[in-house]
Amino acid sequence: MYLKHGTKQVAETGTATYTVTYTGAGSDTSSQPQTIDYTRTNTVDAVTGDVTAYGDWSVTGDTTSFTSVTTPVKTGYVADKASLTVEDATPTTETDTVTYLPVGTVTITKPDGTSTTTPYSNDQSDATKVTSFSVPSVAGYTAKVTGATKQADGTYLPDDATANTTVTYVADPQSIAVTYVDETTGQPITAKSFILTGVTDGSYANQLASDKWDFAADGYALDTAKNGSDPLTTLSGTFGATNGNVTVYLVHQTKTVTRTINITNPVTGETTTTTQVAHFTRAGTKDEVTGEVTYGAWTSLDNSFSALSVPEVAGYTASQTTVPAETVSASDDDSTVNVTYTADPQNITVTYVDAETGRAVKSFTLTGTTGSSYASQLADEAWDYAAAGYKLDTAKNATDPLSELSGTFGAQNAGVTVYLTHQTSTTTQTQTITRIINYLDPTTKELTSLTQTAELTRTVEEDLMTGAKTYSQRTTATWPSFTVPSVAGYTASPTVVPALVVKDGDGDVTVTIAYTKLVPNSSAASSSPASAASASATPNSASAGFSAANAATNSASAVSAAPAAVTNTAPTSRPH
User: Fold this and answer.
1) Distance between CA atoms of 295 and 286, rounded to whole angstroms?
2) Which among 172, 389, 563, 569 could disulfide-bond with 451, CB atoms 3.0 to 4.6 Å apart, if both were Cys?
3) pLDDT at residue 440 tops 70
């Protein structure tokens, strides 16, 4: 009996894995593994357990496919793959390897020999690429780049990211055209013009030495008005990055005659020099066979010197006021004119004036020249006016004007006036005027004298120059009043000698007191002038009646006059 194996359906699961490994850029690393879960149903022999038929795999999870893996950028390295991906068909373990290599470098060598080497910069958007680089420009040179291609923006992209690039510089062609121009005709002398050729920083000294023209030998001279000096002598001998052409302006051979004018300032000592030049020219003919040059006669271009005015300097006289115009010929020699200055005579007159009379009392004159010193003269001549009885009039001269003089003559010098007044001395004079009062005691017959003195003063101002004296008003003084002593049985006349103001012009005075004996019961008689002796006031030089009116007048004067010294002398008594 034949039996057939039975079958059964068995489920199978599986996982697909994908990993990227990186190598060559330092420590090896790997990407994060990606996984996909699968399942399928297989037919299995129920007797032997063998799978008789496999089902199709199907994804069981959310992840249905592997994502592309972007290669990370490693500074200084480039990868062989920018990104990786794998088709997910069955549960398998898939791996890929990304290999990094160092980026190349760019070496830039300058014309001066200095060089720099720099690695390429990574393209941050693609790990397999580098970016382009810039090549610095050098004036007068063209860069030569090997290993990179120039881009539209002027930068260079390496042909191979891992290969090196070199940059060198090639000197550019250079030239300098030298043109000689005949200023007389205004035309270039093309037969003598030439071009120096070479490259930047290359020398053209030998070319210049062999090609430049000896124009003087052919009857030409440099036009110094346009070329101060031969411009070829200022060339460096080496081509620069840029090189200007040179034009040499020539005139027919010339000769100059020079007049030099030197003007020396007498104050500063500085010399100003003016140079005047007359130009002459002549043409030369060169024999091309023998090389001999034959010259013609000199022709004037400007054969005269213009006049020059000499500047004025205050206080000095120039040796000449003008350097005159002059016409010269080619055969004349150069000349020099030296202008000097002479100091002008100067003087200062010093006058001493008596301000009180308005008359000059003394004078002297300082003499010399501009810029010279008169200090010694002034010291010798200055007048000691104080010794002569004068003093400075400070109302007109606050200080002695001679003390303000500089001691050196200027371009202009004003005279000096010293105003003086007389010196004076002041003294005081005193006059003493005396009043003597005499009275006789009628009982004892003893005579008493009282002396009163008044001192009147005045000032005397004496002019020490003329001896003239000026007197002030004398002061006044007052003799005091005197009460006459009473004597019993007698009546004094007067009973009081009144005070009296003494003034200038008054003289000494003597007053005598008389006593009259009283008559009993006859008081009326005692007061009668006929029955009593009168008192008298007598100046020492003459007799005069002393009246009450005079006393009143003197008393009135005492009120208005200032008192002076008055002396009362104690009475003296003597028998009569």
Assistant:
1) 9
2) 569
3) yes
Quote the radius of gyration of the chain (alpha carbons, Å).
71
Count CA atoms closer than 13 A to 265's CA, side-chain side.
Answer: 10
Taking the CB of residue 451, how many other CB atoms lie within 10 A of it?
A: 16
199 and 80, same domain (yes or no): no
Q: Say whether both 302 and 338 belong to one domain.
A: yes
The CA-atom distances, in angstroms, between 155 and each of 133, 138, 139, 146 are 5, 15, 18, 13
Q: Domain with 402 in it: what CATH number?
A: 3.10.20.470
Cis peptide before 575 (omega within 30 of 0): no
Question: What is the number of domains present in the chain?
Answer: 6
- Closest by alpha carbon to 511, among 459, 485, 547? 547
Does residue 536 register a pLDDT over 80? Answer: no
- Three-state SS at 2: coil
Output the pTM of the full model.
0.44
* 1 domain-assigned: no
Q: 336 and 371: one domain?
A: no
219 φ, ψ (degrees, to nearest 5): 85, 15
- Of the pLDDT bands very low, low, confident and very high (cuts 50, 70, 90), residue 523 is very low
Contact assessment for residue 100 and residue 73, using Cβ atoms and an 8 Å cutoff: no
Q: Are strands 194-199 and 165-171 parallel, antiparallel or unpaired?
A: unpaired
Whether residue 169 contacts residue 142, with contact meaning beta carbons closer than 8 Å, is answered with yes
Least Cα distance to 568 among 487, 481, 485 occurs for 481
| Contact of 180 with 188, CB cutoff 8 Å | yes
Q: Is the peptide bond before 494 cis (omega within 30 degrees of 0)?
A: yes
Round to whole Å and give the CA distance between 188 and 247.
Answer: 9
**Strand intervals (E) in 518-564:** 536-539
Q: State the Cα–Cα distance between residues 316 and 266, nearest whole angstrom.
A: 8
Which of 121, 137, 171 terminates a domain? The answer is: 171
Cα→Cα distances 295→81, 286, 300, Å: 89, 9, 15
Eight-class DSSP state of 523: H
> What pLDDT does 171 receive?
97
CB 446 within 8 A of CB 575: yes
Convert the pLDDT of each residue in 10-23 to its tens digit. 999 999 998 999 99
Residue 211: which residues within 8 A CB-CB, separation 6 or more?
Answer: 178, 194, 196
Contacting residues for 501 by C-beta, under 8 A, at least 6 apart: 476, 477, 478, 554, 555, 556, 557, 558, 559, 560, 561
Cα–Cα nearest to 407, from 377, 375, 379: 375
How far apart (Å, rounded) are the C-alpha atoms in residues 54 and 232? 101
Distance CA 277, CA 255 (A): 10
Single-letter amino acid code for the residue at 448: T
